[in-house]
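Lecture 7 notes: from sequence to structure.

We start with a single chain of 291 residues. Read the sequence below before looking at the structure.
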Amino acid sequence: MHVPCCAARMAVSLLLAGTMITPAFAVSGTVNTEGSSLRVRSQADTTGSVLAQLPHGTTVEVLSSVENGWYQIHVDNTTGYVSGDYLLVDAAEAASLPVEAEPTYIQVTVSVLNVRSGPGTDYDKVGTVRSGQVLQAVEENGWYKVDSGYVSAEYVKEVDASAASQAGKGQEIANYALQFVGYPYVYGGSSPKGFDCSGLTSYVYSQFGYSINRTASNQLSNGMSVEKSQLQPGDLVFFRQNGSTKAASHVGVYIGNNQYVHASTPGVGVIISDLNDPYISSGYVGARRIV
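Now the structure, written as tokens:
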């Protein structure tokens, strides 16, 4: 069935107006994940926050296509983006959809950058982003509109989609590591039954198909070195405790905002700590990026 382009645009307009009306000629798509679920994201890439997860076989309304191979979809009162690799859409119907430009990606180049409610310093500060973070953005007169507000173009640089994809995978790894907060510390442990520091990091990375060395000292040779000012979620951060002769005696997974998750001691288990803590920062020896 051929769907007029103007009809698809009408569906988008009705959605943006706040009233979702599904016409009889709406373009439909079917989730094709062979048993797993498909993540609906706030942006047309893996850096977007996850809005919903759709089971295999779910039927969705397809609103538009994106030049990078993603689709904007609507299902169950949720509107977001999904990868075209996991959505079956009739080719003729897909050709009739409105096309969005491929996303622009920016990377923060200063240690901390304010996010404001509008494109100017007179607008309220609504958050911050840190050095190295990659965001999807739209340029507006010397500012970029991002998911949470606006950032000044003076303190960012445009990067390609591969950098965005890398940052998105790191965020997934960080999010996965966070689920183990509160789990017990077990010396030599490398499973959810209990972790030591490098057991946690090696286990987390193994769930994403990465094989890294088992001890903190040896993990210091995995991946590539990263400056502290360029840390991104998913990076490994390393420390040397007082009196240790090892290159590194402790390791954790950086989660953003100067924080990291790690298996600390038998008394506290897996916790979140701040890199700015004086005791912790004095033993900091470096970071490695695996993805």
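The chain has three domains: 5-100, 104-159, 163-289. Keep this in mind for problem set 3.
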